[in-house]
Amino acid sequence: MRETLDIRSDTELLDVARLFYGDEVPMIDLTQDGSKFTVSILGKDFAYVYDDPIYDAIPDAHKDGRLSKIALYDALKACTGREMPWGALTGVRPSKLFYENLRAGKTDTEAAEVMQSVYRVKQDRALVLRRIVYSQRGKIDFPCDNINLYVHIPYCTTRCTYCSFVSVPIEKYRSQSTEYVALLSEEIKRSVEFLEQRGKNILSVYVGGGTPTSLSAKELDTVLSAIGNVSVEYTVEAGRPDTIDDEKADILKAHGVTRVCVNPQTLCKTTLEKIGRRHSVEDFYTAYEIMRRRGFDINCDLIAGLADETAEDFAASFEGIKALAPQNITVHSLSKKNGSAIRFDPSVNRATEEMIEYALNNIGEYRPYYLYRQKRQAGNLENIGFSVKGKECVNNITTMEETVGVMACGAGAISKFIGNGNIARYANLRDVPLYLNKFGERVTAKLDFFDEQYDIENK
Length: 459
Known about the structure:
The protein has about 450 residues and is α/β, with parallel strands linked by helices.
């Protein structure tokens, strides 16, 4: 049946067009007649027929939608002369398509070939996915009675220009943070008790934010005490070096934390000032040493595409972090997300792709182990985590690949049930005052949500 569609009425097709045009998408019509597609861009037609057997790689339930995106991508590439590293893909998790092909019986090599020939993914990115799948073996699939525990701390020392997370400057909200910690601790205890009663096993704990270590030592101890004694992978984000000291590091160690994130984002002093970080490069090295001495596994974040940084600036930061030999390095491509101060900043760092390429080609003993993408990401690129062998973060893998559910506590935290062939979510209120005012009813509603899902699962 012949059907014509203005792509601006279809969110997924519009996202493909935005890869090429940003927010200024021209009039584009797409017509489908069976396996035949015609794309009209600014009065010029591009026609394609997709009946080659290779397209059997696309499940029937998704074939029309995915072929429409591929046709639009092919037309935009022909019209503009440009191509994207991830081809026609716009989703957060390109690895899901790779795994889809593996479940269909294809080898790693064949799955990588499908990513290139069908979805137009560049060869280097298809090979990265193949390496990630290899790194994830043994750390992705777990029995259904496992769940990750996530705790959100919505406070930081300052708000970075690129930040869109639920986070406010703690110095302005010290009185609020006291109440927040008290109620958050209650939510954690109720959630952990609920999981115990349901016979669920906490696979990993992740305390994120914001910056959890922006809390006072006493507040941090209160939150971690609510989590209790767990002998699992246990991560706390200590992202701001200016929030780390010996007392807080000892508290983390005493509560069984195994992994911390100490995130400079860059080792360029000028850039730190431009993006609103209050710490110095020297503060980062001091904080890193505090954590290293206590034997934590350490992750360090860097952002490619910041401010006016050059590829050489990024390479210097990357090599500086590598020299410290943390267990994990995560490289993010700058994303101008809703809620960030730079959302409407029209400037583009043209060196971002070169920065990511540098990281991929100079990782040494590190291996890529997880990857995800975001909208409005510089160069249509990605965020990618690197790890030394055996130190891959199980929480990052299972949460990003959506193989293990999440019990989430705190303002803006999103719980996730995975089972029964579907994924269901429950979101806590983002606004901290609303979280505090609606605390009792919302925690009860969250636990009722899980109760309902578990009851369905057991039928």
